# Entry
Amino acid sequence: MAAVQKVGIVGAGAAGLTAAILLADAGIEVEVLEKAAEPQTLGSGITLQGNALRILRHLGVWEQVEAKGYAFSTLGLRAPDPAGTVIAVLNDIRTGGDDLPATLGMYRPDLTAILRDRALAAGARITYGQAVTEIADDGGSVTVRTSDGGTSAYDLLIGADGLNSTVRKAIGIEEAPKPTGMGIWRAFVERPEEVVRTDLTYGGPCFIAGYCPTGPDTIYAYLVEKAQERNHEDGPKVMADLAAAYGGPWKDIRSNLDHGARINYTWFTSHLVEGPWNRGRTVIIGDAAHSCPPTVAQGAAMALEDGAVLAELLIAADHVTETLWKEFADRRSERATAVVRASVQLGQWMLDGVRDADVPGLMNSLSTMLKEPA
Ligand SMILES: Cc1cc2nc3c(=O)[nH]c(=O)nc-3n(C[C@H](O)[C@H](O)[C@H](O)COP(=O)(O)OP(=O)(O)OC[C@H]3O[C@@H](n4cnc5c(N)ncnc54)[C@H](O)[C@@H]3O)c2cc1C
# Structure
């Protein structure tokens, strides 16, 4: 029999829904509490690397993801010149194995919807508009209080509640995301025909100018700059001004910014909870436990892997023991730490203007590690 019969999951993002699907598939009662009033319907794009796709295949949703998204296995590098000269097209390492593409871009709400539908079909209960506010662990079960004043008790509680995790604070973990010094503008726009993969331009007025196709008709384009106070409403003008220095598809992207593009600005942050991610019968996963700037686009992949590994261990064990938590830490800490450190390092090299940094070396060693299943 599995170690737990009734699991509460806080947060219906990639980490929480992954754990929900696998635990519910194994016949465990699962309740997901999500503070948002309703499922996410608006958003930007997301870049999913092969190791993320491998987990999505394990969840049985790869065909749906492939149909909605845009897969590719090369990475373009362009010069920061008016022509957007292509300097190199690199074959990306297929971190999910050779039978999956290296990368797939998709619209975030589509990914969430696919995972949500799969979790519901597996038998998980998902309640929206339920923010968890307090937690009490009596050693045998965990009771949560929600914003409506209600309480529920579980054999185990998974805090998959993202960057500003309430669960993390409630179990006394002090680490929290800190700005890394960079800010990113993201725009979800029509796909110029020329955009068939991610192309990155380093330098010019921004640290990075890039885009990723998210489907046959759409892309998300991004510009990474020094973190500063910005207003989302200024997005179309600021992005158009910054993008004027970049050529190739950026000419079309700029003209599409005016056509009601969804534009958003946010700062990069990072944190890492060292040591075990659980306190008693409450455990945090995904962005609640670690976050990093998306310089290697691995945040969601780590969230998916955390959820899958935790579910696997809970299903296989007879009891919730220190051995189980040690195994979870052994399987996840080193990998998540490597991703956070590499992601932060890449950004820091750009902030410091280091020109001879060994970016290929760092990327190769990280990809080689990620190619091994979690
Ligand atoms: C600008 C930017 C770009 C990124 N781009 C990429 C990318 O291209 N590729 C990639 O792999 N990663 C990317 N990431 C990282 C990625 O978005 C995250 O790592 C991933 O979404 C984490 O998933 P999660 O399930 O842990 O958390 P989340 O997706 O944040 O989900 C947490 C959920 O918990 C809910 N919640 C919060 N508090 C409570 C509460 N008290 N009670 C109930 N519910 C609660 C939230 O509403 C939310 O639905 C990016 C991040 C940023 C900031």
